[in-house]
Amino acid sequence: MKKKAKSQHIKFHGFHILYYAVLTLFAICVVLPFFWLVMTSLDHFDSYSLPFPPRLLPQEPSLFNYEMALKNVPILSYLLNTFILVILCVLLDVVVATLSGFCISKGRFPGRRFVLLFILSNMMVPFEIKLMPIYNIIKDIGLSNNFFGVILPGVMTNAMFIFFIKQFCDNLPSDLYEAGVIDGASKFRIYAQIFLPLMGPVVATLVVLDVVNVWNDLLWPMIVLTDVDLSTIQLGLVRYNTGANGQVHAGIQTALSVLSVLPLGIIFCFMQKYIVQSIAASGLKQ
Amino acid sequence: MIKRNKLREYVSWYLLLLIPLVGTLVFNVYPLIQTVMDSFENMKGMFIGLVNYQILWEDDTFRQSVVNTLYMAVLGVCFNVPIAFVIATMLNSVPVAKNVYKVVFLLPMIMSMITVATLFKYLMMPGEEGVLNFLLEKIGLGPFNFLNDPATSRESLIVMVVWKGMGYNIILFFAGLQAVQRELYEAAKIDGANEWKQWLYITIPSMKSSFTFVIITSAIAALKRFTDVYAISGETGNPAGSLNTIMLYVYRNSFSTLNYKDLGKASSASVVLFIIILLITLLNFKLTGSDNTETRLPRRRRRSLK
Predict the structure, then answer these.
(1) Is B90 close to A23, i.e. CB distance below 8 A?
(2) Nearest C-alpha of chain A: how many angstroms from B151?
């Protein structure tokens, strides 16, 4: 309804031409480097370095670079590892955050405010300054070189997601909870069968945000996963870029880069609405 | 009897919250205390007081890393925030195709820093082979050495990071603009204020909390700068240490494969970083007010989440 009303009031002003010009120029600056990367990866050139002079469109379009990348770099295994890591992490993040957010929002128990502040304290202390002690804990419980070692600290301290869900649940009527209690349902059942289904949109937003973050994370996986076979795609890229697989071939490097972005790109196409929302919401939540 | 039931009720809530409570204890409280303790110890685990901090103070590499980190943080914020804000207000003002631009601006967000660094290393390749130098030559500039020259490496890195992160800030500002009360603009229009005056006297003052949020979050992220400099130059922060940051220094002293390791130094550097970030966070609380999360425009916020 609101949208309809808005579209009837479209008004063009003279200065909008200038605005569109600036926005378009800016959009070109954003897209062009990316476009160049994709085009270069589709170009065939024999040398290890890029063709000179630089060209925007491939002279000899071919998938040569991709064939070489697949042959020389275990990119599929990197991608598979990253998929597993992302799925595990997102799943656990969502379960823990929704359950905890629900409890803090609807629970009636002494110390609720303190529990919230205690969990939010995770946001005050950046993960980066606790690297060594956390790594030692992970090592001691035998989770180094294990995907759970990568995701456990994050999942168990995900204050931002918990806060997100808590705020969302605050806007849901408490009567829903009371009704569940009267029907004799346990707290977990009230969470799972009444509240969780209502959290759809906010969970989708969190999932999108989480997928992008986990997919692109470097520092912590680099510390925990020293085993080459467990490398995520980012670790694999670093390994190739630093020349661990022999001399760096510019074509292969661009092809690898494109392959590493491709899965997220596909998700981005379908879920862009949620990506935009997740960012907007993260700002307004503060 | 009633009391016991109540107690059971309370305990069951705490049990459901066990994971984040234990997590906070094990992965936040304990490591923080451990880091602070480590910063007072030498390599053999002996208590040496503030000696590590003194070593840090006298360490030129550390001082350089602090200067670089702060310089790049200020440069990044000054470069990013005004442009992002102007673009966001333009985007808010135009009548059609807003979503197309939003999606395009966000495109770099899905790329990892490693990919972006690979891309910009090629674009900013020194000499005339680099794409940017090739283009700049056409308008009579350059050639620059960009990331390979200590004089320009930090600025080049900021260009790269701003390219990647600008869309994020634009969306944040755009969301903030939706929360500005329409009535204010209506009133201004009746008073005869033009678009420019509305922007200056209504939009900018109404966006105070958005500015605070964007500046503070970018500043904190910039202080923890690691992935981008690591992707460009590895753990050394070359050329000539110009891309050396505090986190890179911490990483080198904790996990380096080369012979840099010194946990005492790493921990004390972490503590210094923590104190800087804590001060900024407290400043944020002071600027936005502690009750901000509850009171600020709840209706708009709810709508934007749908």
Answers:
(1) yes
(2) 24
The answer to whether the Cα torsion of B291, B292, B296, B299 is positive or negative is negative
A286–B167 CB contact, under 8 Å:
no
**H-state helical runs in chain A:** 2-7, 15-41, 64-72, 75-106, 112-124, 131-140, 147-156, 159-170, 175-182, 187-189, 196-198, 200-216, 219-224, 233-241, 250-285
Containing H/E element for B294?
Answer: helix B292-295
| Among chain A residues, CA nearest to B89 | A19
- Could you give phi then psi for residue A61, rounded to 5 degrees? -60, 125
Contact A237 B13 (CB under 8 A): no
Query: Which of helix, strand or coil describes residue B85?
Result: helix
Domain residue limits, chain A: 12-70, 74-285
Of B91, B101, B107, nearest in space to A275 by CA: B107
Q: Is A130 within 8 Å of A153 (Cβ atoms)? A: no
Return the number of other C-beta atoms located less than 10 Å from residue A239's C-beta.
16
Residue of B nearest to A105 (CA): B13
Say whether B237 sits in a helix, a strand or coil: coil
Q: What is the ipTM of this complex?
A: 0.88
Q: What is the pLDDT of residue A159?
A: 92
The fold for domain A74-285 equals: MetI-like fold (1.10.3720)
Q: Which two tokens stand for residue A15?
A: 């200065």
CB pairs under 8 A between A and B: 280
Q: What are the 10-residue block averages of pLDDT along chain A, 286 residues in total? A: 49 84 93 92 81 77 88 92 96 96 92 92 91 94 94 93 92 89 89 91 88 92 92 93 80 92 88 79 60
Cβ-based contacts of B257 with chain A (< 8 Å): none
Determine contact, residues A232/A82, Cβ cutoff 8 Å. yes
Contact between A156 and B27 (Cβ < 8 Å): yes
A275 contacts in B (CB within 8 Å)?
106, 109-110
Predicted pLDDT at B201: 86
Q: Is the pLDDT of residue B97 over 90?
A: no
Residue B238 buriedness (CB in 10 A; 0-12 / 13-18 / 19+) = middle
Closest CA to B175 of B106, B108, B277: B106
Residue A226 DSSP one-character state: -
Q: What is the pTM (predicted TM-score) of this model?
A: 0.87
